[in-house]
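Hey forum,

I'm writing up a methods section and want to include a predicted complex as supplementary material. The small molecule is S-adenosylmethionine. I've pasted the protein sequence and the SMILES. Can someone with a working setup run it? I'll credit the forum in the acknowledgements.
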Amino acid sequence: MTGVCLWLGEPAPAEPPPGEACRGSDIRITTIVVMADGRLRSSLCTEASLTSDRFVSWAERIRPAWDHGGSGLPVLVHRKLWEWLFIIEALSERGMLQPGRRGLGFGVGNDPLPSLFASLGCEIVATDLDVAQATEAGWVAGGQHAAALADLNRAGLCDPDQFAQRVSFQPVDMNRIPDDLRGFDFTWSACAFEHLGTIERGQEFLLRQMGCLRPGGVAVHTTEFNVSSNRSTVTWGPTVVFRRRDIDWIVRQLRHWGDRIDVDFDTGSSVSDRHVDVPPFTNVHLKTMVSSYVTTSLALVVEKSPDSPPERPIDPWRQARLRGSDAWHGRVGPRWRKVVSRWRTETGR
Ligand SMILES: C[S@@+](CC[C@H](N)C(=O)[O-])C[C@H]1O[C@@H](n2cnc3c(N)ncnc32)[C@H](O)[C@@H]1O
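Reply by user p_vandermeer:
Happy to help. Structure tokens for the complex are below, copy them as they are.
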């Protein structure tokens, strides 16, 4: 293994107070995290789940999307691949990947999921930022944005005719989900809702996209998680990093509506789980650094309550919270923002 290797047993760069860091337990043997009924539940990226039989068989199925040369190399120890596999497995075991099911993907970029789902018979609406916004945000130059339908079957996972019949593309800003996207069996996004500007915007997206699901539908979304602190984090900017307490807030809101979500914050304990990959990157990339924080991927699985009302009114407190955070991050000048940012980092507010 080359490159810098930090160990999570040592003080993290932004030192959290004792007991607040979200670290893997020393006494627990990490295995794939499942619910009592054997289905995946919301969890962090670990080597054990990535190399489980279920994930490996999906990895083989989508191999053209990550092993471009078809070299037959073993499954990559990479969090991005884990995110895709988690989404696929969580949806599959809940009976969502079947002919006739309707799925809605957000910020799909070049992910292979629309084409895989279509190959399994699903009808898919794939969405991403419109080109102008995505260009401004740097997603187009980075090759991570989908501008049109043709971008989504590059790996050839689906027969082109079936793909054309079953997949449609629509520009959608995740901060403004259109009201006509309703009644889907499932929704997903990979590595996207941390890019909406602030922690509060990401949280709000998670809650609002539930409105796109029919009662009993399933949402699976992956994002950036702060492993080293539950106090300070990146709260605004192009990429924010969710702390455990930000996720706990989402969970409370969802449960209020009767949705089912359980989260396991175990970070894993294998050598690969403990390696923090920083440039020059190695081929073990389950944890990395964003700003001064150790991060990894978190996948959230939400089963919408079968008794959910068709619309969920947004309470005034939530609206005020969002407006306050937008105003705060949008209107203050860059110098003042820097001062505030330092203050928030130091005080954990
Ligand atoms: C890191 S890429 C991930 C792409 C893809 N899901 C994958 O797993 O490869 C982030 C994606 O989020 C999209 N995105 C960023 N901000 C967005 C927004 N406000 N609304 C919709 N999509 C957004 C980008 O265009 C890009 O496709």
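Some notes you might quote in the supplement: Residues 316-331 form the longest helix (16 residues). The first strand starts at residue 42 and ends at 44.
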